[in-house]
Amino acid sequence: MSDVGKAWSGRAAPLAGGRPLPVPGIAALLWLLLAAAAVAWWLSSDMPADILSYEEDIVFLGIQHIELVAWAGGLAILTGVPAGAVLSRPTFRRSAELILQAFNLGTTIPTLAVLALCMKVLGIGTVPSVFGLWAATLLPIVRNTYAGLRNVPTPLIEAARGMGMTPGQVFWRVELPNALFVIFGGIRTALSICVGTAPLAFLIGAGGLGELIFTGIALNDLPMMLAGAIPTALLAVLVDFGIGRLQIHLVSRGVNPLR
């Protein structure tokens, strides 16, 4: 294999003297240098002060952003988990994949197009925005719920039936607890998508941090754009971290690989 091939494979490529060239280490060093340069530029400029000048707007629009995510994400959980559970039942196993493709439309179609369709039908404001974000974030929850319940080991289900459990008891006491870790994974993905796409709701009159982002782009105002983009990114990280902690603590130790 050539030196280029070894470098791309992530292994150490030998130098002329026989000493290895640690490619991952060099990549990490380059990223560190770039980060240090970015921090130095940030601290030496007026950018932090310019961004903080939008503090009141960040707080007000951030609350709107959180409300949009809470409504859309909450509705996605309330509808996606039951839908995935129903599709996992033996009655729907033949048609489950076909039905999942219908849920996939909200993800396949660009979110902006979904919001535009919602605006055409429901008008402008919060309601069409929540509906559009709900459609865009529904699939991960439905698919993970379906996959988690379908992949519960068959011997566990048969053992529960052999103990005399009813179908309802088998679902609530055996299937759902064993699928909960996978379901939480879908919820984490869905809510992260929801936070990241919620700025688009500004374009149909719902407010949120997208107001700072798109207004900053239109005015070529970098501090204004960053005043919306940075809180959005931080909010996505916090939501993912928070759901991850719930996933660790609420899922039983026996079926939780993180404990």
TrEMBL record:
Record localization: Cell membrane
Entry-linked PROSITE patterns: ABC_TM1 (PS50928)
Matches recorded under InterPro entries: ABC_transp_perm/SBD (IPR051204), MetI-like (IPR000515), MetI-like_sf (IPR035906)
Domain of life: Bacteria
Membrane-crossing residue ranges in chain numbering: 21-43, 63-86, 98-117, 123-142, 179-204, 224-243
SUPFAM superfamilies (UniProt xref): MetI-like (SSF161098)
Topology in the lipid bilayer: Multi-pass membrane protein
GO biological process, one term: transmembrane transport
Major localisation: membrane
Residue stretches in coiled coil: none
Keyword set includes Transmembrane: yes
Protein family membership: Belongs to the binding-protein-dependent transport system permease family.
Protein name: ABC transporter permease
Lineage of the organism: Bacteria, Pseudomonadati, Pseudomonadota, Alphaproteobacteria, Rhodospirillales
